[in-house]
Amino acid sequence: MSFPGTGHQGSNWTELTEGLWERNPVFVMVLGMCPTLAVTVSGINSLSMGLATTFVLAASCWLISLLRRMIPKEVRIAVYIVIIATFVTVVDYAIQAISLSMYEALGAYIQLIVANCLVLGRAEAHAARNPPLAATLNATGMGLGFTLGLVMIGAVREVLGAGSLFGLSLFGPDFQPWVVMVLPPGGFFVMGGWLMLFAIVRRRRARASVATAGASHGA
């Protein structure tokens, strides 16, 4: 498999990595905000939710891409939702079997992966138009980017709100936690901080690119 203008391995690498930074679902595309703000009170919750979403995203996009020529356009969205819901059910039962405490912590947000606009958006915008390998790599990259975003938010909230990271105490018993960080406003504060940081980095990169282009043109 190859794509116009690029090599085989280069194309696969681009499909896999674009969701990590250039099109990060949380910090660039700002998708899936409900679970992003709701379950990121701890690092382990964030990681679990991210990995569950990644599995559903990759598996559903692979199957949708495989069946893309057989799905009638008139009912494609309904078919996509059925496929996504099937894999969400698999994840739902798997988490129950692995850890009931984790299942209770994530609550209804596991089932709500079905309604996550990131999953359905990837199915419609990419998997339905590309071969299975490209669709799976792209979905996996987007899922990992989503996981990264959740963990970055959850880690900050857990460190400041509980003095721990992934359940491990960092500051000892004398630490005074920032209670607001484990409350809903804490999610907005941390999300806003990360968005500001990403905006600053993108602006600096854009300025550097302009400066480099100007220097090359002058030379």
Kindly describe this structure.
With 219 residues, the protein is mainly α. The protein has one domain (8-218). It is 66% helix and 2% strand. It has a two-stranded antiparallel ribbon. The protein is flat, with a radius of gyration of 20 Å.
Number of helical elements: 8
Main sheet properties: 2 strands, antiparallel
* Beta-strand content: under 5%
Overall geometry:
flat
Helix fraction, binned, reads 55-70%
Cα gyration radius (Å): 20 Å
Query: How many domains comprise the coordinates?
Result: 1
Which regions have little confidence, pLDDT < 50, spanning 5+ residues? 1-7
Strand elements, count:
2
Arithmetic mean of pLDDT: 89
* SS-based class: mainly alpha
Placed side by side, the strands forming the largest sheet appear as: 1-2
Order of helices and strands: HHHHHHHEEH
End-to-end gap: 39 Å
Topology, please?
Layout: H1 8-17, H2 33-38, H3 43-66, H4 76-98, H5 100-106, H6 117-125, H7 132-162, E1 164-165, E2 168-169, H8 184-218
Helix pairs in contact: 1-7, 3-4, 3-6, 3-7, 4-5, 4-6, 6-7, 7-8
